[in-house]
Amino acid sequence: MVEEGSTLLRRMEISVAEAEKRTGKNTVNMQEIFTVYLIETRPIDAITEGHNPAPDSLWRRYSEFEILRNYLLVTYPFIVVPPLPEKRAEFVWHKLSADNMDPDFVERRRVGLENFLLRVASHSVLSNDKILYHFLTEEHRWKEVVCETGFQAKADSRIKALSATFRVKNPDKRFTEMKHYSDELQSLTSQLLRVRARVADRLYGVYKVHGNYGRVFSEWSALEKEMGDGLQSAGHHMDAYAASVDDMLEEEEHYADQLKEYLFYAEALRAVCRKHELTQYELETASSDLISKKQQREELATGMVRTFSFKGMTNKLFGQETPEQREAKLSLLEEQIVQGEETVTEKTVECEEYVKGAWVDMQRFKEQKDRDLREALIGYAVMQISMCKKGIQVWTNAKECFHKM
Amino acid sequence: MSRTIDAVVSPTQTNTIPADISGQMLDLDEDDDLEVFSKDSTLADGNMFNASMPTSPGSMVNQCKFEEDEESDSKDIFITVDNPESHVTAIETFITYRVLTKTTRSEFDNSEYEVRRRYQDFLWLKGKLEDTHSTLIVHPLPEKFVVKGMVERFNGDFIETRRKALHKFLNRVADHPILSCSEDFKVFLSAQAWELTTYKKQGPGFLSRMGETVRAVANSVRGVKNRPEEFTAIQEYVEDFSNKIGSLDKVTQRIVKEQKEYLEELKEYGPTYTLWSGSEEELAEQLKGVAGCIERCCKETEEQVGHLSDTLVPVLHEYVLCAETLKAVLRRRDNIQAEFEAKNEALATKKVDRDAESSDLGFVWGSLLGKNPEEARHQRQERLDGEIEELKEEIDKLEDRVEWANNALKGDWGRWQRSMRGDLKSAFLSTAEKNVDYYEKCLAVWETFLLSQRTEPSEETDRDNTP
User: Fold this and answer.
1) For labelling, which of A70, B65, B236, B390 has a CA lying 20 to 30 Å from the CA of B428?
2) A312-368: pLDDT as tens digits
3) Around Cβ A245, how many Cβ atoms within 10 Å?
4) Final residue before a domain boundary, out of B187, B203, B219
5) What is the pLDDT of residue A332?
């Protein structure tokens, strides 16, 4: 993993500590409620030296994070920029609220935003950005500063370019494959998340119905002399079993969030590949322009028409031009050719640099992804084990109670 | 060690019913004359009979537990219901079951019988037992058909469930000290098909049965006036029990439904990991590993649901039916008492009549026809005295009947409660055990996976990138 300079995270401790509700007027002058998140920062050296300084802090809302990210996307198009947590709750199952104001959703979003900042601040390229630094330290002037960079215009044209269709003659095969992979990653993870949500919903149902055993056992125990005690305590265990599912599924939501991050990462990866295609396409266009201009010059100079051209046709039909006209055309062409060669050189360099930078970051991303997802899967297994152990405990206890019946 | 069945009962033991049954029923535990079976041979004999039945370990356990459960380890009659077969006639299609009986009881001519019976025959037997012993608690039969699930009568699961219930029904009757001595029961087990048909045709005709029904309805309308406290207590218990067991039945069926739906989703979940592994390099092994774990958990879930359906659901359902049986038994007991009370009232009225110095119509007529008033009154008195004597005789019989009915019910009540506790405890225990087993198996699956991950060379790269 290549590092350039020391990343911001090495120098500064960052956290998104809290969330709060605020009211205010929105762009159409209507009252709205929104959530703000507290970003706290502390210099690392102060901490390691043994002091315990109070953190600097400021409040940001989700839309400001979006602005920051959009800025990073256009400023570093060759970087796979870390994604934000989802704007709206998706892959929801019935117990989970789709409401953005729901405290569980807000809490998971807080964690996601912190994760985003930590990823950005530890990236060898992104962490050096001034705008990022201001985002973390300047509460009020930041928006103006970022707008002054003029990124918004670039952001709009980026979106247009990303969705445009064009054919690239010689794309870098590695990027084509990576784009294909990003599409797959997107569809596979979203399918997995969808099914997982349905499974969670069903599991919830199974556990909760057992709560009815608790109620009925309790009522029944009042009727029975011999079985009463056993039934009563078995009922308590059934209640505990039904209640245990809430925490277990909440924990699983964190696993789902980890997968979601890579679902959104897939989009960022795709964008990097598309940008390469765009750059390559511009290079190819400039190159073919240059070639055709050179061809035209040759035709004019030698008077020979090698390939079919409209000029050739009109020459045959209407006769050739005067020598003065030809001279004017030739010198114009020469100018254009010089410009064209400059453009081609520029674009070639741009392409090469882009490919180099992007490939490095895509490798970094790949390694990060493998590490993170491996950890996530292990975490998932650990969760399943914990769930099984709880199940064993409850039913062993219930068994004891049934014995006493 | 295995013993043959013939050695079960010592030759001197007979199974005739002593005159005073109530005493006998309460002393079941003290049959010293009987040889005690060792549990091993009970199991071994159980195995013999299961040869022609599909033996899932679960059903074998239930069977053996059932046979072990006896108060005296000295069963002398073994019945199995198995081998359902379809019969097609011009008029209808129906299923018969093989009923195999092995016994050493003296009232049976042979020691072994094999007959085929259809559901209607079981219904007939139950009806006869209830008619003859109206206040004994007869174990319920499976229902005629399941309306709720729209289950076909010839569906494999339905037939198997019914077969198990029929098997249990016959064995419960065989265990009952009084019911098992019933002639109808004997005929059911031993008669060939045509013999049974002939036998069924005997008995009280249609009209007299109608008369009985009318009387029963009249009595139930009249109601019973002085029900003994203990039977009221039993009735209240039965009401409550019926509610509770109905709830348990519903809850359990709901759990089965939810579990099956969970299983359906789970079956689609594993493949999403497998699909993903196709696009990955480093992660492929792991993803396939997770997919494998989920698949194995699917199998365990399927088994767990199956166990629930085979073990807990049928037992709860049986006791829902039992509750209805109990209500009917209590009603019949009430009717018997009501009939007795009605006759008593009639007697009281007649006595009043006789002692009355009234100028009744008969007296008037008598005098019109020229009869001597003194003589007419004397004749009337004699007539009434005769009727009173008749009534008194009837009342004596009814009184005996009431006492017999009450004692029968009282004795059977304790017996039923013990069975109920045993059955339900064992069913819930089995369910809890299976659930523990289920979670233990799933735990092992995930722990194996985790172990395989930890032994792989982990990437100990410096982690300053990841939160």
Assistant:
1) B236
2) 666 666 666 677 887 888 888 888 899 999 999 999 999 999 999 999 999 999 999
3) 21
4) B203
5) 87
C-alpha–C-alpha distance, residues A154 and A165, integer Å: 19
In a domain, B1, yes or no: no
Domain boundary among B167, B187, B203: B203
pLDDT attached to residue B371: 66
What is the token pair recorded at B399? 């009184």
The ipTM value here is: 0.88
Mean pLDDT of all residues in B405-431: 93
Same-domain status, B246 and B315:
yes
What pLDDT is stored for residue B211 in this prediction?
67
In a domain, B14, yes or no: no
Cβ within 8 Å, pair B279-A203: no
Residue-range definition of the domain harbouring residue B152? 73-203
- Domain total of chain B: 2
Do B304 and B391 fall into the same domain? yes
Q: Tokens for A257? A: 């969030």
Residue B16 has pLDDT above 50, yes or no: no
Query: For position B235, which CATH number holds?
Result: 1.20.1270.60
Does the CB of B240 have a partner CB in chain A at under 8 Å? yes
Residue that the structure tokens 């081609």 belong to? A344
Q: Does B7 touch chain A (CB under 8 A)?
A: no
> Using 50, 70 and 90 to split pLDDT, how confident is the model at B238?
very high
Beta carbons of A199 and B262 less than 8 Å apart = yes
Q: What is the value of pTM for the model shown?
A: 0.80
The answer to whether residue B35 sits within a structural domain is no
- Contact between A59 and A37 under an 8 Å Cβ cutoff? The reply is yes
Long-range Cβ contact pairs of B442-446 (< 8 A, separation 24 or more): B442/A384, B442/A388, B442/B296, B442/B297, B442/B300, B443/A385, B443/A388, B443/A389, B443/A392, B445/B293, B445/B296, B445/B297, B445/B300, B446/A381, B446/A384, B446/A385, B446/A388, B446/B293
**Same domain, yes or no: B301 and B443:** yes
Q: Which residue has the tokens 């409401």?
A: A99
- Burial degree of B311 (CB within 10 A; 0-12, 13-18, 19+): buried
Q: Report which of B269, B273, B452, B464 is spatially closest to residue A371, judged by C-alpha positions.
A: B464
Across the interface, do B429 and A389 touch by the CB < 8 Å criterion?
no
Question: Which residues, other chains included, contact B1 with Cβ-Cβ below 8 Å and sequence gap of 6+?
Answer: B38, B40, B41
- Residues 6 or more apart from B65 whose CB is under 8 A from it? B426
Residue from B239, B262, B264, B460 to probe the interface with A (highest A Cβ count within 10 Å): B262
Tell me, what CATH number does B174's domain have?
Answer: 3.30.1520.10
Asked whether residue B179 falls in the same domain as residue B267, the answer is: no
pLDDT at B24: 33
Give dist(CA A379, CA A384) in Å, integer: 9
- Indicate whether B199 and B232 sit together in one domain: no
Nearest to A377 among B255, B272, B290 (CB): B290
| CA distance to A3, B141, B189, B214, B412, per residue, from B186 (Å) | 93, 18, 5, 30, 21
Chain B residue whose CA is closest to A111? B467
Tell me if B37 is assigned to some domain.
no
B287 and B179 part of one domain: no
Answer whether A122 sits within 8 Å of B247, measured CB to CB: no
Q: Is the pLDDT of residue B65 over 70?
A: no
Q: Tell me how far apart the alpha carbons of residues B79 and B101 are, in angstroms, rounded to a whole number.
A: 5
Across the A:B interface, residue pairs with CB atoms under 8 Å apart total: 158
B167-188 confidence digits (pLDDT tens):
999 999 998 988 888 889 999 9
Contact (CB, 8 A) for B309 and B256: yes
Model pLDDT, residue A276: 92
d(CA A398, CA A390): 12
Q: Kindly give the parts of chain A with pLDDT less than 50.
A: 1-5
Using a CB–CB cutoff of 8 Å, tell me whether B279 touches chain A: yes
Rounded to an integer, the average pLDDT of B132-153 is 74
Q: In the prediction, which pLDDT does A373 show?
A: 96
